[in-house]
Amino acid sequence: MTSPADRTPARPGRRHLLRAGTLGAGALGVGAAGVGLGRSLGAPSAPADSAEEASTHWAPYGGPTVPFHGVHQAGIETPAPASATLLALDLREDVDRDGVLRMLRLLTDDAARLTRGEPALADTEPELSSEPASLTITAGFGPGLMSRAERPAPDWLAPLPAFGIDELEEQWSGGDLLLQVAADDPLTVSHAARMLLKDARAFTTPRWGQTGFRRSPGVVRPGSTLRNLFGQLDGTANPAPGSEHFAKVVWIEDGPFAGGTSMVVRRIRMDLDGWDEADRGARDAATGTRQDDGAPLSGGDESTPPDFEKVSANGFPVIGEFSHMRRARGVDDGEHQEIYRRPYNYEHAPAPGSGLLSEAGQVFVSFQADPLTQFLPIQRRLDELDLLNQWTTPIGSAVFAIPPGCAEGEFLGQSVLE
Amino acid sequence: MTSPADRTPARPGRRHLLRAGTLGAGALGVGAAGVGLGRSLGAPSAPADSAEEASTHWAPYGGPTVPFHGVHQAGIETPAPASATLLALDLREDVDRDGVLRMLRLLTDDAARLTRGEPALADTEPELSSEPASLTITAGFGPGLMSRAERPAPDWLAPLPAFGIDELEEQWSGGDLLLQVAADDPLTVSHAARMLLKDARAFTTPRWGQTGFRRSPGVVRPGSTLRNLFGQLDGTANPAPGSEHFAKVVWIEDGPFAGGTSMVVRRIRMDLDGWDEADRGARDAATGTRQDDGAPLSGGDESTPPDFEKVSANGFPVIGEFSHMRRARGVDDGEHQEIYRRPYNYEHAPAPGSGLLSEAGQVFVSFQADPLTQFLPIQRRLDELDLLNQWTTPIGSAVFAIPPGCAEGEFLGQSVLE
Ligand code: HEM
Ligand code: HEM
To answer: Which positions, given as ranges, span the membrane (chains A, B) (predicted)?
Structure first.
């Protein structure tokens, strides 16, 4: 339901239509060209209109909309846009099962509106809702929400075990309710997140919020792999959205959460200053891939399958045994778990006096049908041994159960909570 | 030199050319359509290329470049892009005049490269430099830098006087050197800021950093006025970039800083929760403009000049005497100073336990030839009386002298420091 092919151009808000007549056919071109669709659009974009025309002609800005309703929630298989805020909220003590359902109804209603480019019900800045820019809103449930709603949680829904590499900070971990708000525009994200927080305010207190970024629309080739703050192509080995393989890796098949998935959020600090000291050889050896073009060290280009058997003149594997890719894939354990990674870069200015150039890292997000049999073994292997650990430190951790999508008239999580 | 009309499409980095042949003529269309040029481009955009084509055909992504060299520095008259980081640095104690000049040469050299879409000299992630996305880098000097360079500072170069509305926090104020790094892509900004910080590292310690956002390319009509986090159109009364009027308001005419300007940076917290309680009437009365379309309360549309004489049936001025616009313009004092405002929205997730929905506000930036005769009287009037003060609080403040632009082979500030 929410595969890339389903993206439709923005339906302009009622206000826009009232103010400027109907939307011309030229709309599709510019709207669609503005976002990172990983496929040919076929048609050339409409010309940008001039400032002179602007007062009489409503230009097709605002960006595409991504359907909110569907078998799966949006924001998972849909291309990750430029900007995202993840919010984790804790239920207030006095909120019971009925309160949880009431809150989810409110949130669903406003999420549906906002993703269509319409104001939230109690929107005091409707002007900030008219550019959906591929907005998606994805909800996830922590163990606390499931028990408050008096429904059994999936058995895997629990904090991850502690890892040796972890330096978790309470402020980045856990949460009863997760809202992933993502769009191709940071003001759209900011406003939508605020509207949802307002809906949830009577029922929850904010626990943590993490904002991250990828590339702005049009800046890199649609479908390009993300570059992280180390400069690496990060996401190459992901299952392809829209494929059967993706479905197998990500979507839960049976039970109340069928059509849903699990979401692991790890806040991972990246030591950019330390990374600066490492030369290309050390960097590439740490992942087993080349920083410049993402090709495996065994050769080819980004899309070439790695050859883990290949050895150098002196008999060592070209893709080293301690490299992140080899460890993550489980090559030497005869295993191969898969997950779908959809991370965001984060960076903020250094705290005064920290001596650092910046606080930076990755809001690591992965989706998988079962975190215990997919994510956990990978993370265990990386915890044991992974050259990349020299420069990365998990400082936050949370797991959420993502209910399936809902149909119009339903609320998010209805099938699992009723 | 750096007017909007000067924007040229991205010159692809050498690496790209080597990898994929020459850049076709179709480049201009998509590149230019990706940014907010406030004028007609004339030509339709090239079609987006498909993922299949991508390996054999280098697509014209990366965004336009803005010329770095010129009579004026870029990043002032050029359209404000989607993302910006402002960095304030303090000179280390042992850095003398020679050190300052050496540092500025280094910074200028790398700023010129990065804005062309080329890696910095010691760039360890050259892959993150190949999308300039209209990158501009603007340098400003605080009093500390001028005295270390043993040159007289303009007499206005000093902290602003304290205002009654101020709740300044040391962590957001002052600084010897200001770097404004702005582009249509947050990863481009992040990387460029980091490269400049590395250059400056031996000479300075970071004092503060502020990151802000406007709209992503393509999301709103090019040339649209920014919406701030209150939902207001903010920037309507600005002098038009490229006009003679702009030049008169912004550029210094005589002396060593001729062709330069002054930059005021105020970090202004905006009480979004309080703003939520105010109804449309109270909101519009606070500014004297309508939140929805930015028209003055006296009527018309955003571009209609306000009629400050107009009174309501009961004899009160329609644009109230305490409204932000009327006070800012000095209508009742028979004055009319002007400045050029180029602010960014900021927002981050609420601190745990703060009870707030978010920490939000505006990185207020204004450019004017003389802060004492232009900015100061406006700020004094607003400090005295301005309905908007109920919801806004300055928490940081700094003033910098912006030297004129430099020619190729020169360094930023050369004409004022040599
Ligand atoms: C900041 C932290 C991390 C960085 C910078 C990073 C970087 C990378 C890079 C550059 C690659 C190779 C290209 C690709 O396929 O994406 C990769 C692959 C991979 N990473 Fe990470 N990674 C990080 C954390 C993690 C974590 C926490 C996990 C899961 C526990 C993980 C799981 C994987 C997997 C499964 C692959 C694909 C391996 C394969 O089958 O080829 N990564 N990572
Ligand atoms: C967060 C703080 C602020 C907000 C939300 C804000 C908002 C606005 C709005 C909505 C307008 C009317 C539309 C326009 O012309 O832009 C305006 C006008 C203006 N503001 Fe502000 N403003 C803020 C701070 C300041 C500050 C600190 C100054 C200077 C000290 C300033 C100076 C002006 C000026 C000169 C005008 C144009 C008045 C005219 O000639 O019509 N503003 N502002």
So the answer is: none
